[in-house]
Q: What sequence folds into this?
């Protein structure tokens, strides 16, 4: 079956530090990959996505590259802000059709001023 | 433009009772999915509704059932509640076309506590 593995948190960084949150996946075929973010008191929001190998998704300074050879989709940001404090979820959906999302367990990011 | 709205936001039930959660999708969306998010975990897919039919189902028992109405809103029903059903229940809406696969818009959830 499909599965997503994320690094455990919390990840605590100082403002302007570099962020990496690791995500690896197991799936048949070539799934679409996503990062969702859950800010305190808010619903899950799509942060970025990539639908095929070597695609790079980007949004709000965050980036992630679809690496088929390593089955990975690591989230990176060059300089985090306090406002980036949230829980980040990596997710996948199989290609084709209205498929359900399979989520990782989430990684909490805490950015200190 | 209203996003996904869910009700109630919080509720407390006792074991063996039944609960109904409601969801209105984002305007223009025709597909509704339900997820269960246990504390400290990622959301787990329960089922998805499109054109008033259940299109896909996750690994949840028959105690979990749903419905979609002609206006695309949806209900999640859980019968014979167990302590382990305590969780945040998330509704997500999307367009049922291939170009938007996986781009779900989530509500803030209904927090169910079973005592």
A:
């Amino acid at each position: 079956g499909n599965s997503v593995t994320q690094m455990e948190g919390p990840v605590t960084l100082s403002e302007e530090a570099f962020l990496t949150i690791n995500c690896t996946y197991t799936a048949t075929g070539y799934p679409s990959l996503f990062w969702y973010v859950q800010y305190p008191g808010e619903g899950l929001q799509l942060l970025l996505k990539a639908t095929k190998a070597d695609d790079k998704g980007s949004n709000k300074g965050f980036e992630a590259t679809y690496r088929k050879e390593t089955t990975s989709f690591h989230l990176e940001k060059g300089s985090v802000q306090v406002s980036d404090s949230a829980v980040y979820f990596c997710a996948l959906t199989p290609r084709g059709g209205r498929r359900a999302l399979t989520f990782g367990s989430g990684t909490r990011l805490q950015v200190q001023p | 433009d209203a996003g996904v709205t869910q009700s109630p936001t919080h509720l407390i039930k006792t074991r063996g009772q039944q609960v109904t959660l409601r969801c209105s999708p984002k305007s223009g969306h025709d597909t509704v999915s339900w997820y269960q998010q246990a504390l400290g975990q990622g959301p787990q897919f329960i089922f998805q509704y499109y054109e008033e039919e259940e299109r896909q189902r996750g690994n949840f028992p028959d105690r979990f059932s749903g419905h979609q109405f002609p206006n695309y809103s949806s209900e999640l029903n859980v019968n014979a509640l167990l302590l382990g059903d305590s969780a945040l229940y998330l509704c997500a809406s999307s367009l049922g076309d291939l170009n938007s696969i996986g781009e779900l818009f989530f509500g803030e959830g209904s927090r169910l506590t079973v005592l």
